[in-house]
Every structure is written in C-alpha cells, then in structure tokens.
TrEMBL record:
Domain of life where this protein originates: Eukaryota
Keywords: Membrane, Transmembrane, Transmembrane helix
PANTHER family reported for this sequence: TRP C-TERMINAL DOMAIN-CONTAINING PROTEIN, UPF0658 GOLGI APPARATUS MEMBRANE PROTEIN C1952.10C-RELATED
Annotated coiled-coil segments of the chain: none
Biased composition (Low complexity): 491-502, 531-548
Record's GO cellular component terms: Golgi apparatus
Name of the protein described by the UniProt record: Uncharacterized protein
Region (Disordered) location: 483-575
Organism: Tetrapyrgos nigripes
Amino acid sequence: MLGKSSRRLLKDTLRFAKIKLVYSRITLTKWTTLYFFVALLYCIVLVVLQGITLSENTRAVGILDGLLQSGHIPSKGLVVIKIGNALEMCRDLPSQPDSDCSVIDGTDLNTRNTLTTLQLETEPPSKHCLQSLIWLDDTLRDSMREDIVTLIFHIWLFLLSFAAILNESLPHLGAALAGHVLVTAWAGYRLRSSRSVQNLYNAFIVQGPCGTDFLGDWWSLRQSHTWQIPVITLNVVGFLLTTFFSVRLYKVYAAQTFKRVGASRQIHTVYKLVLLLSVCLQLAGFFAVASTGMWIDKASTGVIKRVAKHLNLYRAVFCTMAALELPWVILGWRSVRKEQRRQFIVFWSLSLLLLIAASAIFASPVYIFIFQNWPFFANMTIVSYVLTVATTALGIVCRIHFGRGLPEFLKEKDELEGADFAPVYISFDKEKAGPSPVEKRSVDQGADFAPLEKRVNFDIPSSPVEESIEHVESLAVPHLPYLKSPEPTYQSQSRQRTETSSVYSDIMRDTIKLSSTPPVAQAGGVLADRISISTTTSSSPSEPTPKIGSPSSPKSRIGLPSNPKIGRSPSKSSI
C-alpha cells in the first residue's frame, strides 16, 4: 500500500503530465497556438458582452413587472399582435374557436385617437396600457432566454475548439467552425429583431394607450453599446479568424490522419463520412437540447401557461426528449466509429424516436403558437430538425460501409497519435520509397540468410586434421551451386569450432577404438569416409571434386591428431 506522501506525489505527477500534454498540444505549431488564444479571447469577450445584454434585459423586465403588479389586469389572457397592426387580448390561443380575442383600445394604428394618447402622459397607466405592456414583457423575457442560450453557446464553442486542439480532432474542428457561422448569423438576426421590437413598442405602446416611454434611453443604449458595434464586429472578425485558422489546422490534422497510417482510398472515404456524421451529431445534440429547454421554460413560466392545455403532457414529452439527447450523441459517436452493430441499432432507434416526437409535436396548438410568434425558437427548432434528419441519414450510410476496416484504422491512428515520437509516413511508391526494412536487412546482413554450408570460419585456429578438412571445404565452397533437393547419405551440421574442440567431440563420428600401437588410418577408414562425405555433399555434379589419393590431388595429412603424417595416398589394403 502506498503512503499518503506517495499517493500525493503520484497525483501531482499525473497532474503535471496532463498539463504538459495540454501545453504540448497547444504549442504544437504556431497555428494551434493562435487558434487557441483567439478562441479563448473570443469566448471571454463575447460572454462578457452577452452577460451585459442579459443584465440590461433583466433590468427592463423588472421595470415592466413593477408596472404590471401595480395595476389590476385579468389573471387570464394572452396578448398577441394582430395581422392588421394592432394588439389583441385573447382568452385562449388565437387558433382555437373559443379564443374570444378583442383589440386593445389605442393600439389599432388605423383608429388611434391622438388626443387621448397625449393625455395619458400625466395619468397613471390605464388598464389598456397595462394590457399592452404584457406583450412587451413577454417579448423581453424571450430575449432573456435568447441571451442565456447564446452565452452558453459561446462557452460550448470554446470547449469544442479546445477539444479539437487537445485531441487533434477533425469533427470538433468542423463543429466549432459551423457553430461560428451560426452564431454570427444569430448576431445579425438579433440586431434586426431588436430594432423591429423597438418600432412595435413605439407604435403600439408609446404612441398608443400609454403615451409614455417607460424605458427611456434603454433601447438606444442596448443597440449602440451591446449589439450594433461590439457584438456584430467581434462576431464577424472572430468568424474570419476562426475560418483562417481552421483551414490551417485542417491541413495539419488531415495530413496526419490520412497519410500517417497508409490506409486505402476506400477507408478515407468512409472516414470522411464518419467525420461529417460526427459534426452533425454534435451540433444536433446542442440545438435539440437548447430548443427543448427554451420551450419548456416558456411554457412553464410565460404567459402562455395561462391558456395552455395538456401542459403536463407536453412537459413530460420534452423532458424525455432532452434526457435522450446525451445518450443519443454518445451512442452515435461510439457505434459508428467502432462499428458496434448492437449499439448502432439502439442509436438508430433513438434517432427515429426523436424524429417522430419532433414531427408529432407540431400537432400541438401550443407548440405551433410559440413556433409562429418566436422567430429565434423557430430557427433553433428548424436547425435541430434538419441536423437530426441528416444525422439519421448519414448513420444509415455509415452502417452500409461497416466491415471496411475503419475501427482498425482509427485504432492505429490513435496509437500513433498517443506515441511519444514523430509520426511515420508510409509511401506506396517503391521506386521512391526504396527497399522495405526486411529487404534492407536481407541485403545488409545477407550472411545470416546464406545456406549453412557456406558459413565456414577460416580464421579460428584448429588442429592439423581440422586444417586439412577446412582446406578441402574451402576448395569446394566457391563452386557451390543451388541444390533444390539434395539427398546425401547423411548430412553433417556445420558448426563453428572453438579452440577446445577436436575430432573426438564430434557426435556424428563413428566410434574410434584405441590401442597401444594405433594403426594408420586407411583410405577406406573413418577419416577417409569423413573427407569423402564432406566433399561429396559439397561438390558440384558438373565439376567433380578431386579425390584423396588421386594423382591430381595434393598431399593430405592423414592419421590421428596425436600422430599426423604427410604422404601419398595409401592403398585400399590394410597396413
């Protein structure tokens, strides 16, 4: 068991290793470093500005709530904008037969009484003025929900960018870039929406039943200080910088992914489909959760709850959909990248369930009313639905390509990325790549792959008999041909001799009987057989090896190691 100090040291070491890994990934290239700091600065500045906007909207809602609580207005009612440029007070949804909608006095632009409007400046807010303020209060609350979603989205974008650098992930990089496109478009849309609400406020309320601007210079401060100049400018500049750095990082990560392992072109095609699926999956998950949360909050706390029917059923459906989003994203990511067929069945079943629920909810009058009167929520819902459909379709395409070797490709890529050495790029051009490591080894170390008969050591000192044998073998080795199926009488193993070895240690040798007067080895004796066998198995059929005792053969050393003699070839008769 480790002591407390040892465990603390181990934790500190692991923590330092993680910090070192993060630092190495951020400083991998100058583009990764610039991308990280631009994303961090962009997130901090936009979150601060979005927080200021949220606080200003909260202040305006507080002013309106104080006015509404001071007056006496009906507990039930829904204020909507009539197509004919007027505000209407309805007891139910306008699409329902029992809605009982009536135009609020002083809000109809066609029949407005200017004198009455001017007289309201010195009087407390009237009933009709308070009814018109219900619409503004509900609209600004929607703007607060938009601020919260946008603020969270900026943080989510930074986390995607950080994950893209830390994991060198192309899906996170693509999702972050697509998110910057959407958030820049939202900033422009919200500026236009804010001006539209201001114009309606001036037309229906200030110049209508109230005759007084309760918010003062709030609109001008909101647009000039928090929307028009900083937010739009920063979003555009941030989008351009992010696009430039994303293209640079894509070239680096794509080169490491597609060239490092050396997979086929078919695997590259499948991997690109998986990348596109991963991008759609991450974006669809965020937009689905965001749109679901916005609808639940509005239906539970807004004025719509006064006229909504079956609200508890809608809450249960949307809460179930929101709870299924996270498992849906995880299953989609794992099942496709690892080709896990059972998990893919669960993922695709959840995709169908989410699509059916998202389509069936449009049959709800409450949902349709919110969808038609809240443009930001409508955009979020449409984007979420389109991404869910695209994810489901791409999932089917990726399932068709199962079994092409994608898990092995990703596993090898992850192992190379996690290794502590530079990546190795494999070339398929043999002329440019040169010999393989095995071929190079066979060329550089060809003696290791040579036949056993050729591995003869000529430098080790030996006894006179061994020198005679090696002399005969050295004459035969240069003329050795390649024999496909040699069939010798018996095959002796070529062994490297040492200084302490001798003919007596040869286990393949026949038994030698010693006497007080050792005879001289005969031509047909053991030693002659040894020499003849060695020369027979080593010689070429086309070029016969000179035999011992022939006229052309040199003088050989015969006899035992203890009594060697040099002379002519002895006769076959016993001496």
